[in-house]
Amino acid sequence: MAEKLYIDALREGLREEMQRDQSVFLLGEDIGIYGGAFGVTRGLIDEFGEERVVDTPISEQAITGIAVGAAVAGMRPVVEIMFFDFLTLSMDQLINQGAKIRYMFGGKAKVPMVIRAPMGCGTGAAAQHSQSFPGVFAHFPGLKVVIPSTPHDVKGLIKAAIRDDNPVVFAEHKLLYRVKGEVPEEDYVLPLGKADIKRKGRDITIVAGSIMVIRALEAAKELEKEGIDVEVIDPRTLKPLDMRTIIDSVKKTGRVLIVEDDPLSFGWGAEVAAGIAGSEAFDYLDAPVKRLGGLDIPIPYNPNLERHAVPQVENIVEAVRELLR
Amino acid sequence: MDLTTDKKLWMYRKMYEIRCFELEVDRLFKANMIWGTCHLSVGEEATAVGAIAALEADDMITSTHRGHGHCIAKGGKLPQMFAELLGRETGYCRGRGGSMHIADIDTGNLGANGIVGGGIPIATGAALASKMKKDGRVTLCFFGDGANNEGVFHESLNIASLWKLPVVYICENNLYGMSVAFSRSTAVKNVADRAAAYDMPGEIVDGNDVEAVYHVVKKAVERARRGEGPSLIEAKTYRWLGHSKSDANVYRTKEEIEEWKEKCPIKRYRLKLVQEKIATDEELDRIEKEVEKEIRDAIEYAKNSPEPSVDDIANGVYA
């Protein structure tokens, strides 16, 4: 297996699906010669041409709606929205159209589209270019939501998202683009709705998604020095959510910390906590379920404030210690 | 571009079908047999029929909240339409969509839409799919005058023109966005004037003249099919009934409504067909009788159709 950057693995996934299926095409702002604001689509225009790597005007609602229409008419569009924050501009077409069309039409239409966007803070981009809120989309029936954390996962999951016959929101944390990891050479697709045990452990379960998986694994390394054996579960997709794997892990460890990059209030971690509380894992809990998430504030600009707006490794370490006290 | 006698009679039949359908819906609604709300297109039949008559069978349309007429003209079947409005399992959407969401992908009807302007980018995207697949299909995008002030209208027309997409935008300007008069909502005199901003042809047509609508749309459809890009057509028309069920028509005068009823597109076309000796009154009466029977049969079919099962309530959210 070769070591690859997350961004390169993602691009490889896009490229392979475009090679495999002529109906797959990319649509978004500055994704052509510029290669996308973060470089995800760099070089794809050379291989597939401007017909399949389509630069659009700055018109997020139309771009999203055009993807919906193209999908209903038999294509498989993959939209890039330049920043996750800008998905608010896509909302009507994504929620009222894309997500609802199949059900509204009695199950007689399908909308196979992916809408990808870079999210998260840590780059000094301030409030309108830094928020993570994939959990919001998990609230809407008809959508699937993917939050890949590693190069291996991002490639397998983008391929699954493209092959899926439903609208999929694909949330890429910006700080993950430069993370390296092993990526198999062979063709592989990961299922949507299957969590992954990123680290096996006995003493406590950390459920973390996206960038928080990386931080949870670092925290686990720290805690190992203190003799604490952490299990890290990455749900990988928020919708469908694989509660089974989480419940089984909590039954084993008896303690759980849920860590997300979304603002804590009403975040997806609450859904996970409720799922645990309502399951047989409840009887195995030796401590209350604990959650970490972003503060309930817009992301601030100042680097020190920004760092404190979302959970860091030390917060996770401290929370685990508290749970085991 | 000349209309055959068959096509002319088809247009008359479809307009009459829409009129009867809408009036029956109104009646069923008042009899509490239809739930929710519905938006009727009585008075606007010529626009739906004339425009869709200009399409080939596998061309596509997107429709609006006032979409029964578009669906009928595109080949929608009356029994399945009534069944949908009655919320039955045999309806187009298995009783899940109702009046505002009737779609029939198989006949190229990509759906009515409850969001004003919501269908505009979808039509644009369907046209992009046609361009990419080189399938030669054109998409006709219906919207009302209210939608021409939605941002997505402008975003979509700009893109369609830029990419020369095979789409024809047709605004059914019935002069009111719910209660607000067109002149009080829109800074330009005509919706079609906005075509200039997107470097596409903008045409105004009498929306109550079915043949005039046909010819204008036909020209735009052929242009789109040749790969020369989109057009914006504005059909000036009028809705006789209220915006929806709760409308007491306080924002317009009885005189104005009566004046427009004088311009009834069906009465007007009947006169023309008889005058031009395309059909006799007897032939047209026969068509009307046939339609009336179809409507009665369709309502019977709907009434006798099963309700959807609650066991299936979550069915069809995901593919």
TrEMBL record, chain A:
It holds the Pfam family Transketolase_C. It comes from the Bacteria. CDD domains: TPP_PYR_E1-PDHc-beta_like. Signal peptide: none annotated. The keyword Lipoprotein does not apply. Transmembrane segments: none annotated. The keyword Oxidoreductase applies. Residues 4-179 form the Transketolase-like pyrimidine-binding domain. GO terms for molecular function: oxidoreductase activity. Its cofactor is thiamine diphosphate. Keywords: Oxidoreductase, Pyruvate, Thiamine pyrophosphate. PANTHER family: PYRUVATE DEHYDROGENASE E1 COMPONENT BETA SUBUNIT, PYRUVATE DEHYDROGENASE E1 COMPONENT SUBUNIT BETA. This is Pyruvate dehydrogenase E1 component beta subunit. It comes from Thermosediminibacter litoriperuensis.
TrEMBL record, chain B:
Gene3D superfamilies: 3.40.50.970. This is Pyruvate dehydrogenase E1 component alpha subunit. The keyword Coiled coil applies. Residues 14-310 form the Dehydrogenase E1 component domain. CDD domains: TPP_E1_PDC_ADC_BCADC. It comes from the Bacteria. Residues 277-304 form a coiled coil. Its cofactor is thiamine diphosphate. InterPro entries: DH_E1, PDH_E1_Alpha_Subunit, THDP-binding. One of its GO terms (biological process) is pyruvate decarboxylation to acetyl-CoA. Keywords: Coiled coil, Oxidoreductase, Pyruvate, Thiamine pyrophosphate. The keyword Cytoplasm does not apply. PANTHER family: PYRUVATE DEHYDROGENASE E1 COMPONENT SUBUNIT ALPHA, PYRUVATE DEHYDROGENASE E1 COMPONENT, ALPHA SUBUNIT BACTERIAL AND ORGANELLAR. One of its GO terms (molecular function) is pyruvate dehydrogenase (acetyl-transferring) activity.
